[in-house]
Structures are given as C-alpha cells and as structure tokens.
Amino acid sequence: MSATLPLNLTDQDKATIRSAAYGAVSLISAASGKAHKAATAGSLALGSATGQIGHLLNTKSKDIHLTGKTVADLADQVLPALTSAAAVLEQQNPAEADNFRTTVLVAIEAAAATGRNGSASPVVTDMTRKITTALHAA
Asked: Which helix H or strand E contains 64, and what residues bound it?
C-alpha cells in the first residue's frame, strides 16, 4: 500500500533525483572505456523504470546539470546526490526509495555489461561499489 503514496517533491528534489540517476550512469560510462555504449545501455535502463520514479526519470527536463572535466569532478557531484535522493525518497515513501535504488543499480549494471565479454573491469567494479555505498548511506 505504501507504494501508492504520492511523492511531494520540490523542483530541487526532482532535479537531484534525476541528476543522481543519470549521473550514476555517467560515472560508469566514464569509467568503462566504452562511454557511448555504456551511456546508451544505462539510459535505456533508466527509461524502463516504473512507478513514480519511472515517471520522474522519464519527464523531459533540463534540470540535470553535471559538470567537470574528470571522473573525480563528476563523482564529487553524483555520489552525494545519490545519498540525498535516496534520503528524500526514504522520508516520503520507502517503497519508492527502494524502487529508485533498484532502478539505479539496474542501470549501472546495464552500463557495466557493455565491457569486454559482458564483464566489468576492475575500475567499473570499484565505481559500482562507490555508487552502491552512496545509495545506501541514507
């Protein structure tokens, strides 16, 4: 029943959630060495999300602002955003918070699977661990 509770998110909350999800895919893409393939696979996975998170992630928006020239710069933005997004969702609707975490993990798994023979490199595996830790820090 809690899955049907509406989310009462500010515009900033929505921007943080979208930036966190697409930023996680960007981190895996940057770490993968096959950025275009990884970004496409991850974005398709985010586009397949369901529930209120699916609707939020699939809303056309220009509020995703990820800047920086290095993976470290991107991580400095995305990892805290993942924690913040999960915390905001957890406060309002734990089921949608779980949906968000699962959606992001599926997306980064899809992005990571674009590596050689469908396996992730040690760099991608480490980035996946960092993303997972950030998602569960809330």
From this structure: none
pLDDT, position 4: 62
d(CA 16, CA 89): 11
Distance CA 7, CA 25 (A): 24
b/e sequence 67-82, b meaning 16+ C-beta within 10 Å: eeeebeebbebbbebb
CA pair distance 43, 39, nearest whole angstrom? 6
H/E segment holding residue 67: none
Ranges of the chain whose pLDDT falls below 50: 1-3
- On whether the CB atoms of residues 90 and 138 are closer than 8 A, the answer is yes
Cα separation, 97 vs 56, whole angstroms: 13
